[in-house]
Structures are given as structure tokens and as C-alpha cells.
Amino acid sequence: MGDNKIVVIGMGYVGLPTAAIMADAGFDVHGVDVNPATLQVLNAGGCPIGEPEVTRLVTGALASGRLKASDAPVTGDVFIICVPTPITGDKRADVSIVRSAARTLARYVKKGDLVILESTSPVGTTEHTVGEELAAQGFDIREDLDLCYCPERVFPGSTISEIVENDRIIGGLTPRAAARASALYARFCSGGRLETTAAIAEFSKLMENTYRDVNIALANVFGHIAEAAGIDVNDAIALANRHPRVNVHKPGPGVGGHCIPVDPWFLVDGFPEQTGLLRQSRAINDGQPHHLWTRVKSAGVPIGKVAILGAAYRGNLDDARDTPAGHLIHALEADGVNYAVHDPYVSNFRMHDGRIVPVGIDLAQTLDGVDGAIIMTDHSEYRGLGPDAFAGMAGKLIADGRNLVDRRALTAAGFTVIPVGAPLLRPSATPSCADEEGGKVATPG
Ligand code: SAJ
User: Fold this and answer.
1) Which residues have CB under 8 Å from 237's CB, separation 6+?
2) From CA 368, how far away is CA 268, in angstroms rounded?
3) Could you identify the atom of ligand 1 that is nearest to the CA of residue 209?
4) Which of 82, 150, 189, 205 is catalytic?
5) pLDDT for 127-163, tens place per residue?
6) N or C: which end of the chain has fewer CB within 10 A?
7) Which of 264, 262, 267, 280 is nearest to 218 (CA)?
8) Ramachandran region of residue 65, left (φ > 0), alpha (ψ -120 to 50) or beta?
9) CA triplet 122, 128, 132: central angle to 5 degrees?
């Protein structure tokens, strides 16, 4: 099969690594992006994504000449759309970027080409949005072309291995289209290839991320119950998860990133009557930063300035898109509380509203003189922190949104600790009912 010339629309977190992997596998790849800054970096042989394995593949692909990038498509055998699918301010799906990408590429597509949408999209987008734009150029989208939905598999931090090794869902508008895309992915993916229809593929991708969101919401509700009941939710979860059919997720300070807080809304938008549970889960997860801050305020300790530990939405990443820390900042500002942010990975922290927030890399400096510290991200640097790390604080309050610190040592040293999913621990030489010793579970051997 002559599917060797690939055009990838969108050089972001999904399109760029995909283009680089395909170039590395021997394809001739042309990347397209509308952002001049991205093109400038790529055309200078660099990589706008900091993840080391992505950088290695992208710079190698550019140096080999098998990956090129520009602001307009070229003709090819295969077109892969990897553009953002955001939600609007009122939580409606916005597929306008997919539509405009499809409209642009439709002018370069010829009879017999394969067109693939990878962007996470509402059910029906491949056929109705991409398909409409191709049909507008006179193509019969089942006869003249092969059109597919193949959901992206990007997990920041392990982008390349997830793209290459995960099973790939291949949803064809026709079985012929699915078989052709499956043969294409076989050339750079080692996981299984699961052929289905485009609509089922779209739905299954939304299902994956919605499943995660609803389960995190459930864990957060279990956390609220444990806080009220005076027990530690983690001890209960550790026991429940010993059951062969139970997998309770982790409660935390909120759900961030580019996928989980967005994708359930595509289902809510399309199916408002069936999705009350999804809406409620979103509300619970969105409420977590505020919930943690409310618990800090209820501790009865004066707080004029706090240190926020972690700007990234998930641990050991430099990615702060839609991060819970941003929502915490809004709550602090609403209450007139000052803050300083620390993160070992994030240097450019752009808030949801576009503001750039300064981030410190020296933990002791960030903590110096603050009244309280709030841990928002599960960076390994915060795991097991004890009194020495927090010695420079003016106050002695720590809210631990990820349950990382050494509670016993901290309370013994006079700190008040607010763990997520467990009651507030007062400073004490003798641990009381609800803290460390209460209901402790032996680690599974
Ligand atoms: N989180 C919790 N508790 C948990 C798990 C996660 O509070 O038990 C939080 C994280 O801290 C983070 C947020 O949820 O703030 C989202 O993190 P995540 O680990 O769910 O992952 P994402 O958003 O980086 O990537 C997800 C993944 N989807 C699934 O695991 C089903 C990834 O595999 C997808 O490729 C990605 O969405 C995507 O691009 O769709």
C-alpha cells in the first residue's frame, strides 16, 4: 500500500509526537500549524514540548528531513487531524477548529486518500463535521475516500510509549477505511488494533475519560465522608481495593489537564437528559480546590499568605493546563489572601484567564514567612516532607491535597495538618483518635 506521504494537521501535544513517531518509522511527514511560534521552533530544528523522549524524536525527525512543518497542508496519501476540541464558556462542545482544519485540508485531498480524525470529539464529528467539509469539495465520503476516527493516546509524561504501545481503536466510516487505517497504525504501533465504526470509536474515547472523571468524583465524595466521619479515606480505600472487582480512585485537590475536565461535557452537551451523573461528577471535582481552601479557613489559624506547592495538574510534569492550583488561586484572591507558588517543573504558569503567575523553584524560599502551605500536585519532591522542609514558615499549617507529607513528624513538631479525605490533625505529642494510628491498614504483602 502506498500510504507513505502523511500530512498531520496540528503540531501540538498529540500531532507533533505522532508526526515524529511516523517520521521515525520511515514515513514522509508534513506537519501543519497555524501558530507562528510553534513553526519557528520546529523550523529551527527544535521542539516546543519539553518531554525528553518527545524532544529526542522530534529533533531527530526534523534533522533527518522526514518531518517538515509549515502553515499550510500539502498533498499526500493520508491526512491526520490532531487539533484542539475545547468547550465554550457555557460548557458546550466547540468543534470549530476541527471544522476549519477539515475545510483547509479538503482542498488538498484527492480521490483515494485516507483522512483520520484523532482529536477527542463529540459522537458524530467524523461523519458530520469532517465528512461535511469533505463532501463540500464534491467527495463521496464512503466511496471516494477512506474516513476514520482513531482516538489519540497521549498521556503527558509517557507520551511516546502510550502512543506506540497502547491498543488503538480504529473507527472507520466503512470497514474498508478501518482496515486501511489499521494497516497504517500497524507500521508504528505495537499494541492491538481494534477496528470498529467511527461513532463507536468516538463514544469509547469519551467513555474512557468520563469513567475516570466519575470515579475520581466518587473517590472525592468518599473523602468528604471520611473527613466528616473522622477516619482516613485512604485506609478504607486500601481495604476496598483488595476486592477483586473494586478500583477506587484517589481523592485529591481537583482534576486538571486538557482532557478529563473537558471530555465529559461533550457527552453532556450531546445527551443532556442522560448525563446528570456526569454533570454532578464535574461539579464535585471542580469544587475540590475550593473545598480544600474552605477546610484551611475553618482551621481557626490566621492566614495572610500561603505557599502553593505544585502548579502542574499532575505529578512530575511541567504541564499546568487547567490545573487545580489555578482554581485555588481564584479562591485565594477572592478572599484577599496573598500567595507564592512553587513548582520544580513548571516555569511558565499561564492561568485559565491568560495571566502568567510567577513560580519559584526554591522550596525554602517560597515557604519563607508564609502562614500556611497547600500541596496541590503529587510531585515526588513533596513526598515525605517533614518539619525541616517547612521550618522557614511563619505559621504552622499544612493542607496536604495529595497526602504526601510526614503527618506524624509534622504534628509532633507543632504543625496542624489537613490531609485530603481525613480529618484535620492538631499538633500533638500523642496521636489522637482520627489520625495515623486509627484504622491503619497493613500494607498488602
Ligand atoms: N486524578 C485524581 N485522582 C485519581 C487520578 C487522577 O485526582 O485517582 C487527577 C490528576 O491529578 C489530574 C487529573 O485527575 O489532575 C487528570 O489526570 P489523569 O491521570 O486522569 O490523566 P490525563 O488527563 O493526563 O490523561 C487522560 C488519560 N485518560 C485515562 O486515563 C482514561 C490518558 O490516558 C488520555 O490519553 C488523556 O486523558 C487524553 O488525552 O484523553
Assistant:
1) 219, 222, 248, 250
2) 45
3) 31
4) 205
5) 999 999 999 999 999 999 999 999 999 999 999 999 9
6) C
7) 280
8) left
9) 140
Instruction: Considering the candidates 47, 82, 189, 259, report the single residue annotated as catalytic.
Output: 259
**Which grid cell sits at 258?**
486538557
pLDDT at 348 over 50: yes
> Pocket of ligand 1, candidates 152, 237, 260: which has the most ligand atoms within 8 Å of its Cβ, to mutate?
260
Distance 274 CA to ligand 1 centre (A): 23
Q: How far apart are CA 418 and CA 423, in angstroms?
A: 7
DSSP-derived secondary structure for 170-227: EEESSHHHHHHHHHHHHTT--S-EEEEEHHHHHHHHHHHHHHHHHHHHHHHHHHHHHH
* C-beta of residue 149 within 8 angstroms of C-beta of residue 113: no
Tell me the three state secondary structure of residue 79: strand
Other Cβ atoms less than 10 A from the Cβ of 298: the count is 10
Which atom from ligand 1 is nearest to the alpha carbon of 250?
Answer: 8
